[in-house]
Specification:
Shape: globular
Low-confidence stretches: none
CATH topology of the largest domain: Rossmann fold
Number of strands: 4
Radius of gyration: 21 Å
Helix content: 40-55%
Strand order of the largest sheet: 2-1-3-4
CATH superfamily of the largest domain: Resolvase, N-terminal catalytic domain
Largest sheet: 4 strands, parallel
Length: 207
């Protein structure tokens, strides 16, 4: 049995490794070490998470996927959650979340019957927490949209502030002749953002 740590944050501005020490302590307190870390800054509301799926590809039956909270794995809609859960289940990977004490039982050795019962209960709890995480995501999105609409009506909305540090890095790479694909891979930004920086550079050079 190997344990893999998965850490996720929604945006590049957030610290995806924030809970790393907490997961390390949990593993150590259970006499285990984390074999490898899989860390990324991607939204939990999408299945486009390269590091999570790299973990799932490497892990074998009986291995543990350790997370701080269930929402680190999923803020997915029901269809995408079922797809992800099917992948996890088919590979025999056990999910252990610090915020789901029942899942901690996956670490202890047990007979087949007890193991199957715990897996069934844990699966139900995961479904419930995944649904709660999705609702929380949708509620926050709705409140954000309402706030933006109110700010626009009051002529106070200024839009999302520019990420000066990111744009500076993009500009430097463009000056070095790096391709859009290379910049996206390194900085995890969108091609639209790169295009905006490129356009601004061209405007500066023409003045």
């Amino acid at each position: 049995m190997r344990m893999y740590g998965y850490l996720r944050a929604s945006t590049k501005e957030q610290d995806a490794e924030r809970a790393k020490s907490e997961l390390t302590r949990f593993a150590s307190s259970n006499g285990l070490t984390i074999a490898a870390w899989f860390i990324e800054n991607e939204s939990g509301a999408t299945l486009k998470r390269p590091e999570l799926f790299r973990l799932l590809e490497i892990a074998q039956s009986g291995d543990i996927l350790l997370v701080e909270q269930v929402d680190r794995i999923s803020r997915l809609n029901s269809e995408d959650w079922e797809s992800l859960k099917a992948t996890i289940t088919s590979k025999g990977i056990r999910v252990v979340a610090l915020d789901l004490p029942m899942s901690h039982q996956h670490i202890a050795k047990k007979d087949e019957f007890t193991g199957r019962m715990l897996s069934a209960i844990n699966s139900m709890m995961l479904d419930m927490l995944a649904a709660v995480a999705r609702k929380d995501y949708e509620d926050r999105r709705r409140r954000q949209a309402q706030g933006i609409q109110r700010a626009k009506a009051e002529k106070k909305y200024k839009g999302r502030p520019d990420d000066v540090k990111l744009q500076s890095k993009i500009e430097g790479m463009l000056r070095d002749g790096k391709s859009y694909g290379y910049i996206v891979d390194i900085l995890k930004c969108s091609k639209t953002t790169i295009s905006k920086v490129k356009k601004r550079m061209l405007e500066k050079s023409s003045t």
